[in-house]
Design brief:
By secondary structure, the chain is mainly alpha-helical. The chain is 62% helix and 0% strand.
């Protein structure tokens, strides 16, 4: 008796991504650490407690040194702080700050990491003293979005960052108008 194709695909190890168009290219499965997958998890986690816990569990044991994945791990830690008991909130926020520091040290010009840190720090209460990068990151992000597509952001990240800056009122009306003129 043969296993269903979906089960075979789920069990098939993928050592290296085949070239597009090769006979085995259909077997390539997206990594849970793929930027698009992480963005999807982050967006869901920001809006839903259960998704937040799932996002945290996905990244809690990540110990490699991919800067972008570390940025998302820090965001997951911050989201966990949002949903934690009052006793544990500060611990998760401090872990997130430490992980963001690692991610930014590995890739200081990565706009997506800076966006993640900005989106977290801009929502923290000022009395915690953990929002020291907000102005720096906002300036960096504004420059990055205005430089698109030469900013290192892909189209999806560009739209996310631009919309966040404009829709949340993080930029002036003049800057919002400038951002609106950047072609996708």
């Amino acid at each position: 008796m043969s296993l269903p194709l979906a089960l075979l695909l789920a069990l098939a190890p993928v050592a290296a991504a085949p070239r597009l168009g090769s006979p085995t290219s259909f077997l390539v499965m997206s990594s849970p650490y793929d930027p698009a997958a992480l963005r999807h998890h982050y967006e869901r986690a920001a809006a839903d407690k259960a998704a937040g816990e799932s996002f945290y569990q996905l990244l809690v044991d990540y110990h490699a040194q991919d800067a972008l994945v570390l940025g998302y791990k820090a965001a997951a830690q911050a989201i966990r702080a949002r949903d934690a008991s009052m006793f544990n909130k500060l611990t998760y926020v401090q872990e997130a700050a430490h992980t963001f520091a690692q991610a930014v040290a590995l890739a200081p010009t990565n706009a997506e990491i800076r966006f993640l840190r900005f989106s977290v720090e801009s929502n923290l209460p000022a009395f915690l003293g953990l929002s020291q990068h907000v102005d720096e990151d906002k300036t960096f992000l504004l420059s990055s979005v205005l430089a698109y597509p030469k900013s290192g952001l892909d189209a999806e990240a560009f739209r996310t960052v631009r919309n966040f800056l404009v829709d949340r009122g993080h930029v002036s009306e003049a800057d919002a108008a400038r951002l609106g003129e950047v072609p996708e």
